[in-house]
Structures are given as structure tokens and as C-alpha cells.
TrEMBL record:
<dbReference type="GO" id="GO:0005829">
    <property type="term" value="C:cytosol"/>
</dbReference>
<dbReference type="InterPro" id="IPR006683">
    <property type="entry name" value="Thioestr_dom"/>
</dbReference>
<dbReference type="GO" id="GO:0061522">
    <property type="term" value="F:1,4-dihydroxy-2-naphthoyl-CoA thioesterase activity"/>
</dbReference>
<keyword id="KW-0378">Hydrolase</keyword>
<feature type="domain" description="Thioesterase">
    <location>
        <begin position="52"/>
        <end position="127"/>
    </location>
</feature>
<protein>
    <submittedName>
        <fullName>PaaI family thioesterase</fullName>
    </submittedName>
</protein>
<dbReference type="InterPro" id="IPR003736">
    <property type="entry name" value="PAAI_dom"/>
</dbReference>
<dbReference type="InterPro" id="IPR029069">
    <property type="entry name" value="HotDog_dom_sf"/>
</dbReference>
<dbReference type="Pfam" id="PF03061">
    <property type="entry name" value="4HBT"/>
</dbReference>
Length: 151
């Protein structure tokens, strides 16, 4: 599958997720190697207005979404793959006034489960805010056909 098709598929997938639209998430990069999403810094994701620190729940949402959509980078046809398990290890707080990026890749695809791993970061992917591993259930390509169309 071409990188342009993967990019189109991941953008379409992200556009169907209302909470991601509200948070302003966007696809930064997508190819067969993985997916990078951007979560723009805003007051909606701040845990404490005085410090401006990003809430951990926003990072969790970013990474669950990034890992989940990264399945579209690894599968030949789009499938709905709900989260079975997600583990996030936080290294440090996200800095105020900077966007947060999430990168995820699928490192193992089985007939029933897809295994992902990734990082959340701001300026440098080698200085992660958090590490994540996730498992996603494969429901088959027919599940994607049943997904509602966006109005």
C-alpha cells in the first residue's frame, strides 16, 4: 500500500472521532512505518491554569488514538480495532505552550490482535514524555464497512 493511501486512510479515520476533532488533533505523518499525530496546546488540555501543564488524560487520549489508528498503517484493508490493553509510562510532564506529538507503530500483527508501541513527545522524539504499549482486537474488514459514514 502506498504512503499516500495510508495518509489518506489515517486522516479519514481521525476525522470520524469527534473528541479528536474537538481537541484539534491532526495527522502529522503516516506511512507503513507508523503514525504521528499532533495534539495542539490549548486551554482545553491544561490541568492547572497557573502552571499551564498538560493534563495526563490528554496524553492518554492522544496515545490511545495514535496507537489505534496506527493499525491502519499495518493492515491491507481498514478494520475497526478496539483497544484491549493500553499501558502508558509517564517520564515527565509536558511543557506548557508546546504541542504534543504521539508516534506509534504496529510491531506485531496476528489474526486476532495487533500489538503497538510508541511515544509521546514535544520537541524531540528522543526525549519522550511517555512510552506506550497497546493491544488492539481485530474485528475483520467487515466491521469497517459497518462503521457509520461521517455526515
Amino acid at each position: 500500500m502506498s504512503d499516500s493511501l495510508i495518509l489518506e486512510r489515517t486522516q479519514r479515520f481521525l476525522s470520524l472521532l469527534r473528541h479528536c476533532q474537538v481537541l484539534g488533533m491532526s495527522v502529522e505523518r503516516a506511512n507503513s512505518q507508523g503514525l504521528t499525530l499532533r495534539l495542539p496546546y490549548s486551554e482545553m488540555i491544561v490541568s492547572d491554569r497557573e502552571s499551564g501543564l498538560v493534563h495526563g488524560g490528554a496524553i492518554t487520549t492522544l496515545m490511545d488514538t495514535t496507537c489505534g489508528i496506527s493499525t491502519a498503517c499495518a493492515l491491507p484493508e481498514l478494520e475497526i480495532c478496539p483497544t484491549l490493553d493500553l499501558r502508558i509510562d509517564y517520564m515527565h510532564s509536558a511543557e506548557p505552550n508546546h504541542d504534543v506529538f504521539g508516534f506509534a507503530e504496529c510491531y506485531r500483527v496476528t489474526p486476532t490482535v495487533i500489538f503497538t508501541r510508541g511515544v509521546a513527545y514535544q520537541r524531540d522524539i528522543n526525549e519522550p514524555i511517555a512510552h506506550v504499549v497497546g493491544a488492539f482486537m481485530r474485528m475483520g474488514k467487515s466491521s469497517a464497512a459497518k462503521a457509520p459514514e461521517r455526515p
